[in-house]
Amino acid sequence: METFENVYQYPFSVIDGKPFEQKGRWNEECFGNSNPIILELGCGKGEYTVGLAKRYPDTNFIGVDIKGARIYTGAKQALEEKLGNVAFLRTNIEIIDRFFAENEVQEIWLTFSDPQMKNPRKRLSSTYFLKRYKRFLIDRGTIHLKTDSNLLFTYTSALVQQNNLPVLLQTNDLYNRNAELPADKLDLYTREILNIRTYYENQWIERGLNIKYIKFALPHDISLHEPDVEIEIDDYRSFKRPKRSGLSTSK
Ligand SMILES: C[S@@+](CC[C@H](N)C(=O)[O-])C[C@H]1O[C@@H](n2cnc3c(N)ncnc32)[C@H](O)[C@@H]1O
Known about the structure:
Number of strands: 10
Radius of gyration: 18 Å
Distance between the termini: 39 Å
CATH class: Alpha Beta
CATH superfamily: Vaccinia Virus protein VP39
CATH topology: Rossmann fold
Order of helices and strands: EHHEHEHEEHEHEHHEEE
Bound molecules: S-adenosylmethionine
CATH architecture: 3-Layer(aba) Sandwich
Number of helices: 8
């Protein structure tokens, strides 16, 4: 990946104590245009980053993950398909606000993020992370969360409700025709986007799990509080291995 022009590798050991010089200058220095920027956080192989970039050539997409071997797949595909509106950043999302300036990002996608059953602060939709996203997301910027995890979906929905964040769309069974809001009832644009299926998503679908989706806005003038709800942990995640935490619920 060292030779890939669309990959920026800044693990904590590299960025520690130094300012990131491209902060606030992604469009000028990386994309050479002034188009909106959308991030996919915890992008893995980057299916959303690449899939969205192909559909929306006038928007710039950056996939972020700490695991280089996963990013490699998406970065290679983007280079092979000559997608000039794609980049990947390898870093820890805990320090994501070091890489983007105020109002530099239009939207964020969280695709099949780890539910972090024992540690709510580490969930990519926790107030710890939302406070950091607010520093570079436009006012009322959109956050999309697509997940198999009942715990992560319930937690995020409760957080959104408790903080009065505007909900733009929400369904707990996206691909089921009998659900309250199934994919085929959505407008064409949303349906097209939500049909991009990631590596992890395909595995959960094969196991018969329903896919949940919530899209909400993050206003700047809001002080965020963690939700106070007890949620059942996702039992199926300990499939074929013993439950490590021994817990049956989590905050
Ligand atoms: C379950 S995988 C999902 C990957 C991909 N979005 C998909 O749906 O196939 C979660 C990804 O988030 C990344 N991740 C989790 N926490 C992270 C963090 N704090 N910083 C960077 N990457 C993180 C992991 O490395 C992993 O690739």
